[in-house]
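Table S2 (text version). Query chain:
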Amino acid sequence: MTTLSDNRTKIAAAGVVLLFCVFFLIACGLGYPVLNRFDPRQTPGLSDVKTYAALVTGTASPDAGHVRFRVLVPWLAKPFARLAQGRVATWDPVMFGLLVANSLFVAGTAVLIVILGGILGNRERGSSAVGLVGALLYLVNFAVPNLRLVGLVDAGEGFFLLALLWSLWEFELWALPVIAVLGALTKESFVPFSIVLTSAWWFSIRADRNPERNHFSPVSPWILSSWVLSLAAMIGLQWSITGRFVSPLQFGLALHRGDDYLGHFASSLHDRNLWYIFLWLLPTAIPNLKRLPKSWLIPVGATCAMAFVLDAYFGGAPGTVGRELFSIAGPVLSLSSALFLLRIAG
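Corresponding structure-token output:
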């Protein structure tokens, strides 16, 4: 019996690895234009890529401001860029490194969508293809080739936010502190997003507590420790780069730009990137959202609201709110859209 169980585990693990490799190659193909078709560093609206590329080469300037603290994706890209130096013909080695790093995160996100889709399919007694269709819908969304795979760091943030949701759903609480630290090193907005997401998840499951399950008792300490570690990681990173201590509150207040909140909110809603991402995703996802667990929908919805609040307060550049919303809600909406498409396909 144990041998049979072990064999099934090995087969499942092999399947996950195979899926990851396929998704990784798909992501690399989607992001290929950045290698020698165009340079994102010279493209309006993608100015942050120049800083991330400088982080890969170790030439980032202090003038880059808070963007230079988003180090995880450039760190991961650095060995691939060095490996490609002089070996990839006309491909840009730095952009190659960033493409590989971001493709790894995109592939990881797609695998988590498949896993969560399998859970959803079993829960609904529906098709086992929900996860795979959802992952493919995620990959073909406008945001992936145009925003995830052009040298930005949103692919990393999106992966860690979905990993957070997976770890909570599966009660893999040991993963929360690890995800929190890595997410904070990826992008500073992950910290408030993770706090809101985990808080909303905790409140969403309170009504479902079962005294016979001992999973709930250690949840609060794990969640609180993840908050503390994410803040500590952000403070430690900034201290190591700047040589001075800056509290998260000071750091956040220093990023505030403008007081026209309603005007900025209206301009964010009119942004073309937002509609390119959600024009088909929302209409196909909304009909089946009620079939998704509340412990997914409530945390994701609360975190999306937080994204609008932060975007209005910090005065994010055009396209910022669309990228953040896709990082938060894109995978869940893709799964809901998959349920809809599979239903109408019979």
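Notes on Table S2: The two ends are 37 Å apart (CA to CA). The CA atoms of residues 56 and 75 lie 6 Å apart.
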